[in-house]
Design brief:
The longest helix is centred in the last third of the chain and has 16 residues. This protein is α+β, with helices and mostly antiparallel strands. The protein contains five helices and ten strands; from the N terminus they run βααβββββαααββββ. The N and C termini lie far apart (about 45 Å). The protein has a ten-stranded antiparallel β-sheet. The radius of gyration is 18 Å and the shape is globular.
Length: about 280
């Protein structure tokens, strides 16, 4: 099955009820590396139920756009997560419930030999009907170009400032971090099974891209909000290379008014793993 255009843009939205507990909030915080020092009183509110706070990027593991992606006709074996955008309409509570409604917001045809880009939008709505968060995932379908759609219209990537970073934070990852993070819902064996990782071209299992994405949000809070999640209005980034559990991720940050630009890299390999990052504070 191939992408049917323009019918793909008319696919009915997939709706599901989602809920999360204080346990999931704490597990997510541990999964992105918070709480490594149990005596760190700034990080403790994310991993202890007394005055619990939620990391804003917890929203990315509350609903996954797999169901709608399965109806688009793309070749799952050749799909990668290209970008992630999160907009918070209010501070994410550490426990709650919501309706997740996912649709194909846009699709771009890069050509028969270049693939396609799908923009999948998920809106989380509270039981009252108020919007809680909007997540947009850019999915690069490497084998599905040439279906006759437009190649134009994608938003340009955020440009990092042309100066040295204002702040750089070194965030170590644990050797077992992917095994912990996968308990949040993404059970892809690429993150756990050494034999499977080698089969698809990696020397060993890799860390989830969304885990690294969550670590960059943690860095923004550490650098600019005193670990208060409330000022985070949005958080977006491009995935550019994998992290291997046990490596140290260096997050470079620049602040210009309410806009925080960032990138993440593994210095030991000279690898940039997150590009074109942008967070907006309010």
């Amino acid at each position: 099955m191939a992408i049917a255009y323009p019918g793909i843009l008319k696919l009915e939205a997939v709706k599901e009820q989602v809920s999360w507990s204080d346990q999931k909030s704490m597990l997510y915080a541990l999964g992105v590396g918070l709480g490594g020092d149990p005596l760190n009183e700034a990080e403790l509110p994310f991993v202890y139920e007394n005055g619990l706070k939620a990391v804003p990027t917890l929203a990315t593991v509350l609903a996954f756009p797999i169901a709608i992606l399965g109806r688009t006709g793309v070749n799952f074996a050749r799909v990668v997560h290209g970008e992630q955008f999160l907009e918070l309409h209010k501070t994410l509570p550490p426990e709650g419930e919501a309706t997740a409604s996912t649709r194909v917001a846009a699709v771009y045809d890069k050509g028969a030999d270049k693939g396609a880009v799908l923009m999948l939008e998920t809106v989380l709505t509270e039981p009252s009907g108020a919007p809680l968060a909007t997540l947009t995932a850019s999915i690069f379908a490497r084998a599905d170009g040439g279906f006759g759609g437009s190649s134009e219209g994608e938003a340009p990537p955020h440009t990092l400032p042309d100066r040295a970073p204002d702040v750089s934070l070194d965030l170590p990852t644990r050797p077992d971090q992917a095994l912990l993070y996968r308990l949040l819902g993404d059970r892809n064996p690429l993150h756990a099974d050494p034999a499977f990782a080698k089969l698809v071209g990696f020397p060993r299992p890799i860390l989830h891209g969304l885990c690294t994405y969550g670590m960059t949000c943690r860095a923004v809070m550490q650098a600019y909000t005193d670990f208060d999640p409330a000022p985070i209005r949005s958080h977006q980034a491009r995935f550019s290379a994998p992290v291997f559990p046990g490596e140290t991720v260096t997050v470079d940050l620049w602040r210009d008014g309410p806009v925080v630009s960032f990138q993440a890299r593994v210095a030991d390999r000279e690898a940039v793993v997150i590009k074109n990052g942008k967070a907006v504070l309010g």
